[in-house]
Amino acid sequence: MPISVDRRPYIIGVGGQGVFREGLESKVVSLPQVGRVPQIVNSMLETAAAPSENPVVESVRRQSRIMYYEAALYDAFTQTTDMGHKKPVAFSGHSLGLPIALYAAGAYDLPTLNTIVTKRAQHMAEASRSFPGKMGIVMGLQLDSIVGIIKDMKDKVNTQRISDKLPPLSNMLGISNDNSPIQFVLSGIDEDIVKEALRLAKTRGASLARTLEGIVGVSHTRLIKQAASNLYEDLKSIVIDGPEIPVYANTQLKRLKTSDDIRRELSSALCKPVRWSNFVGGMLQKGQDTFVELAASKFLESTVKQTHEHMVKDGKKVPEVIYVYSVTDKASLDALRAA
Questions:
Q1: In which order are the strands placed within the sheet that holds 290-294?
Q2: What whole-number distance in Å separates Cα of residue 255 and Cα of residue 252?
């Protein structure tokens, strides 16, 4: 049954780099009531039309495409649902989604968002030259099982000869994203170790365990601490306002109120794990039951439902029923517009 965002408080979650799909630009062009979208789409289409053979350059370009796409989605959404009448109670964004969420919440304009995302992507790309690494997603196992896999890999590595150039195992394998109680992203600088960890996850009951393609480097680990420091220096000279609508960090359940809060979180988040389940769980415990996904995926829907189900089983006080809508789903847009 359609839920009116004019009557029910809702939260907007903005997807990160993992939501990327080829052809996503066409989805924006076909959206109804696009508001300022044509201006953004022109930039997005220009970016999409310039592929590179260099994986690092392509990674930067991919982040720019996602940025333009999600900014366009937001503008279309504001027009479709008359957000001037009923704004969301809060925003957050997963990884790359955070600077986009801050744009949507009024912390800065589109050119500033473009500058921030470009610099962010460039510093991450520079770090990946030193630590190319690999990332992999695991679904269907809880945290204790993931920690057990990491421990077993440590024991295994300690009994084998590894190149002296490799850093301690604590840097070689770890959790980059805690997306839900049963969804995690592992990362490490040694591709074979990451793949072996994924193989172990499959043997221990994971419903999904595979490498993430198209993402260069080891994001959200202390290996790229220098990238975080460099980004913070860049952000010092960029004008950032306090957001008009509450925005929460994705590394901790903290509201970003000031410009310095934002600068510190945007930079430090590069070398800290994304604790998305902490944000979702915190919102559920505050009584929030309606979420709107700003992305080309079902990521928010799956992580909200998984977190809710886990909290219900644990006896936590959360809403009995939750509602998740996708901005890219025409039926949802029609329902929101008609509500």
A1: 247-248, 90-93, 11-14, 290-294, 323-326
A2: 9
Whether the Cβ atoms of residue 108 and residue 240 lie closer than 8 Å to each other: yes
Phi and psi of 137, rounded to 5°?
-105, 140
Domain limit, last residue, from 211, 244, 272: 211
- Percentage of the chain beyond pLDDT 90 is 49
Does position 170 have pLDDT exceeding 60, yes or no? no
Whose CA is closest to 189, among 197, 178, 181, 201?
197
228 in the same domain as 110: yes
**pLDDT at residue number 35:** 47
Cα separation, 308 vs 298, in Å, equals 15
Length of the chain: 339
pLDDT tens, 277-326?
A: 999 999 999 999 999 998 877 889 999 999 999 999 999 999 999 988 88
Specify whether the CB–CB gap between 255 and 101 falls below 8 A. Answer: no
SS3 298: coil
Burial of 123 by CB count in 10 Å (0-12 exposed, 13-18 middle, 19+ buried)? buried
Cα Rg, the chain, nearest whole Å = 20
In terms of average pLDDT, the best of 5-9, 112-116, 188-192, 220-224 is: 112-116
CATH number of the domain bearing residue 317? 3.40.366.10
